[in-house]
Write a structure and sequence with these properties.
single chain, about 300 residues, alpha/beta, Rossmann fold, 9 helices, SDR family NAD(P)-dependent oxidoreductase, NAD(P)-bd_dom_sf, oxidoreductase activity, SDR_fam
């Protein structure tokens, strides 16, 4: 391909290594100037982009606060004069079952994996609106948001990203700015922590829904490759996806999927409003609760 993003400026958080690094490289390869955010490895990714003839600058800081979000976006505007693409990729794991999770575990994960997404969007949005030529926001969710053992903090943060994405798509759609979410499975060995592997095994023993990735029970031939995730990110930045916003994508290895927006399965109406007595009627119980399987209780 030519460089379809020539003249565009992209910000990628969590871009020092792994998937975020591959996303930054892909955007640079397509012609974008890139702000590489990472606390520890931003300079290495910037060097790789410059070595391939691209333009990039680092934003060396933790992506975990409103102030960080503002500073990351400011780096793009100060160095390149604008921002066109924002890829929120930063995230951390602190897996514990909910009964042993600490407040620090909760806050650390939510701050990086959700709060700073809102912050970067908050400070990018005025620029995207003022520029008047649209813009692209891509948020990194996770299938963990659909429910996985021992990651309540991460699950809450990542499913918060889903709601954030749908709302931002509605808020900014009138300005031509589109916002989508991806749920990538491109974990590498240092993220496949023993706690997560054991949680996946327990999920399978108890017959919980697989949520598309078999609770960390990856296929034997599965090779994590951030480049495949980066290809989807790149597509969502191109004119071919100009009509796509508020959507929820899955990507793992050779598979790409699209989740539907949540829809109500059932709707019962009671003239005059519901009382406990009305809810306890046998036909109401059957209609409301009758086909719900007991999946979660021992």
């Amino acid at each position: 391909m030519d460089q379809p993003l020539q003249g565009k400026v992209a910000v990628v958080t969590g871009a020092g290594r792994n998937m975020g690094r591959e996303e930054a490289l892909a955007l640079a390869g397509a012609g974008a100037k890139v702000v590489v955010n990472s606390k520890h490895s931003a300079d290495a990714t910037v060097a790789d982009i410059r070595a391939m003839g691209g333009e990039a600058v680092p934003a060396v800081m933790d992506a975990n606060s409103w102030a960080a979000g503002e500073a990351i976006v400011a780096t793009a505007v100060e160095h390149f004069g604008r921002i066109d693409i924002l890829v929120n990729n930063a995230g951390i794991h602190r897996p514990h079952s909910i009964e042993s999770m600490t407040e620090e575990d909760w806050d650390a994960v939510v701050d990086v994996s959700l709060k700073c997404y809102a912050a970067t969007i908050r400070f990018a949005a005025p620029h995207l609106i003022a520029q008047g030529d649209g813009g692209v926001i891509i948020n990194t969710g996770s299938t963990s948001g659909l429910g996985h053992l021992s990651v309540a903090n991460y699950s809450a943060a990542k499913e918060g990203v889903a709601g954030l994405t749908r709302t931002v798509a509605r808020d900014l759609g009138k300005y031509g700015v589109r916002c989508n979410m991806i749920r990538p499975v491109s974990l590498v060995s240092d993220l496949l922590l023993p706690e997560l592997v054991e949680a996946g095994a327990e999920s399978r023993r108890r017959g919980f829904p697989s949520n598309g990735v078999r609770d960390f029970n990856f296929p034997k031939d599965f090779t994590p490759d951030g480049r495949q995730v980066a290809a989807l990110v790149l597509l969502l930045c191109l004119p071919q996806a100009a009509h796509v916003s508020g959507q929820d994508f899955f990507v793992m290895g050779e598979e790409i999927g699209l989740y539907p927006e949540p829809e109500m399965r059932k709707l019962l109406r009671e003239p005059g409003g519901w009382t406990l007595e009305a809810l306890l009627r046998s036909e109401t119980l059957a209609g409301l609760l009758g086909d719900i399987p007991n999946r979660y209780l021992a």
